[in-house]
Amino acid sequence: MVIPILLAVILILLVWELWIAEGAHFGRRFVVWLYDLAAKRYDKIKSFDMDWEAHVLGGPLGDLISQLPGARLLDVGAGTGRTARALAQAGAVGGQDHSPNRHRLMVALEPSKRMLQLGRSMDGGQFDWLQAWAVPLPLATASFDVVISLEMLEFTPHPRQTLGEMLRVLRPGGWLITSNRIGWQAPLILGRTFSKHRFPAVLQQLGFDSVEIRPWQVDYDMALARKPWS
């Protein structure tokens, strides 16, 4: 009787780890391996509606960009290019400059090779793609005006360190746009999530100011925070 119960517990723990925590407690290489396996099905699994994405993500982000002429954006954990496509769908970006010395509007950073390949194939050549980890970010300090990271933070080994790297690469006065998981599953991703009431203080302790938390999706809030000018 003990063995069947033990096997049932192990099965439940595996389902919890793989389905809810997406392998986070097995390390970042395991998480990336899972995303490599799911890459071709990822957009279908997430059920992205690009018209809706343009409305709730691309439009507001485009409004922010319009206030920062010449702004450079970094998408950390870009996946298959959700943010890039939402911006394009909303008409916030467009046109291509093929000169060799140009700087594209956005750098999309993604550690999963297969997710990156799909994203690059769908973005129309408007963005730079970089296969790399979030910690450390292989990018210069104070080199971006906006850093975006959606539905990624809870799957990193050290979320505070990840946020710290995002702060580092932001220029003074630059903006962070990130998500904070608040659904019932969040506490089950042990040591990787913050309560909705605690998250603003976490951002402030790291050095951000002008922190604003907005309802976004059922399981997520969206946070906007600025890197101080000095």
Question: What can you tell me about this protein's structure?
Answer:
By secondary structure, this protein is an alpha/beta fold. It has one domain: Rossmann fold. It has helices at residues 2-20, 28-38, 42-46, 50-66, 82-89, 113-122, 159-169, 199-206, and strands spanning 73-76, 106-109, 128-130, 144-149, 170-181, 209-217, 220-226. The protein has a 7-stranded mixed sheet with strand order 3-2-1-4-5-7-6, with helices on both faces. Strand 6 and strand 7 (220-226) form a beta hairpin. The longest helix has 19 residues, at 2-20. The radius of gyration is 18 Å and the shape is globular. The protein starts with a helix and ends with a strand.
List keywords for this structure.
single chain, 230 residues, alpha/beta, Rossmann fold, 7-stranded mixed beta sheet, 8 helices, 20% strand
Short synopsis of the structure:
The protein is of the alpha/beta class.
Draw up the topology in text:
Blueprint: H1 2-20, H2 28-38, H3 42-46, H4 50-66, E1 73-76, H5 82-89, E2 106-109, H6 113-122, E3 128-130, E4 144-149, H7 159-169, E5 170-181, H8 199-206, E6 209-217, E7 220-226
Parallel strand pairs: 1-2, 1-4, 2-3, 4-5
Antiparallel strand pairs: 5-7, 6-7
Helix pairs in contact: 4-5
